[in-house]
């Protein structure tokens, strides 16, 4: 049976300020008192999973165990068809130690070369874990394509080169509220909320 979030403090198992802010905004209506793993000084576990869900569960369980609080982790990334799904679970690593996503976006562009197939998707796995090891996981996907040059200063990560299917603005050009309506994270969140916060 699906376990419900009891309310109160919830650790967001991330040191990425943009991601923590976005998750906090999405959870605001549900009475979760959000605190980041970075604020609590929790270490970042090594992401050794072979999938987005495996890595999200690994991070959520580590934060729940270290904090003694329910913890929510997100593992997400960009999967490009012409690159056989890369950067995929290594999306953050493509940005290097300095988390320079302009470098990561240029790397995607260079790797694609003159490739005509621009199809790509953002994938998000969300895992909610409790200190006893129980975990609930959900996945969301948004289809689109890669554009170059990068467009827009909103969002974070690969947002400026991702044009959602049927749209005219990249995630980097969209207002946060508009992106929240259709993003991979929003799709995963709807599933999470329906199961664990409803």
Can you tell me about this structure?
- The chain has one domain: Maf protein.
- It starts with 7 loop residues before the first strand and ends with a helix.
- It has a 6-stranded mixed sheet.
- With 198 residues, it is α/β, with parallel strands linked by helices.
- It has 5 helices and 6 strands.
- Its EC number is 3.6.1.66.
- One of its GO terms (biological process) is nucleotide metabolic process.
- Mg(2+) binds at residues 46, 75.
Secondary-structure map:
Elements (H helix, E strand, L loop, with lengths): L7 E5 L4 H11 L4 E5 L15 H16 L3 E10 L20 H12 L6 E11 L5 E12 L15 E3 L11 H7 L1 H14 L1
Parallel strand pairs: 1-2, 1-3
Antiparallel strand pairs: 3-4, 4-5, 5-6
Total of helices: 5
Tell how many strands the DSSP assignment holds: 6
Number of structural domains: 1
CATH-derived topology: Maf protein
Estimated radius of gyration: 16 Å
Major sheet size, sense and barrel closure: 6 strands, mixed
What is the beta-strand fraction?
Answer: 15-25%
Regarding CATH, which class?
Alpha Beta
Residues in helix, %:
25-40%
Whole-number average pLDDT?
A: 93
Report the CATH architecture.
Alpha-Beta Complex
Ends distance: 14 Å
Question: Which features would summarize this protein structure in a list?
Answer:
metal-binding, nucleotide metabolism, 5 helices, metal ion binding, 6-stranded mixed sheet, 198 residues, alpha/beta
Short précis:
By secondary structure, the protein is of the alpha/beta class. The protein has helices spanning 17-27, 52-67, 101-112, 176-182, 184-197; strands spanning 8-12, 32-36, 71-80, 119-129, 135-146, 162-164.
């Amino acid at each position: 049976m699906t376990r419900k979030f009891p309310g109160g403090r919830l650790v967001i198992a991330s040191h990425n300020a943009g991601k923590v802010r976005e998750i906090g905004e999405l959870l605001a209506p549900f009475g979760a008192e959000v605190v980041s793993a970075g604020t609590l000084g929790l270490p970042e576990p090594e992401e050794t999973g072979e999938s987005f869900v495996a890595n999200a569960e690994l991070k959520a369980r580590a934060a729940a165990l270290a904090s003694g609080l329910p913890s929510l982790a997100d593992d997400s990334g960009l999967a490009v068809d012409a690159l056989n799904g890369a950067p995929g679970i290594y999306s953050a690593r493509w940005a290097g130690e300095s988390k320079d996503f302009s470098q990561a976006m240029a790397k995607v562009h260079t790797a694609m070369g003159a490739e005509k197939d621009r199809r790509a998707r953002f994938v998000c796995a969300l895992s909610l874990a409790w200190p006893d090891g129980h975990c609930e996981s959900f996945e969301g996907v948004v289809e689109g394509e890669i554009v170059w040059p990068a467009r827009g200063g909103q969002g974070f990560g690969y947002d400026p080169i991702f044009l959602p299917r049927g749209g005219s603005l990249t995630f980097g050009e969209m207002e946060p509220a508009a992106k929240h309506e259709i993003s991979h994270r929003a799709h995963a969140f709807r599933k999470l909320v329906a199961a664990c916060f409803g």
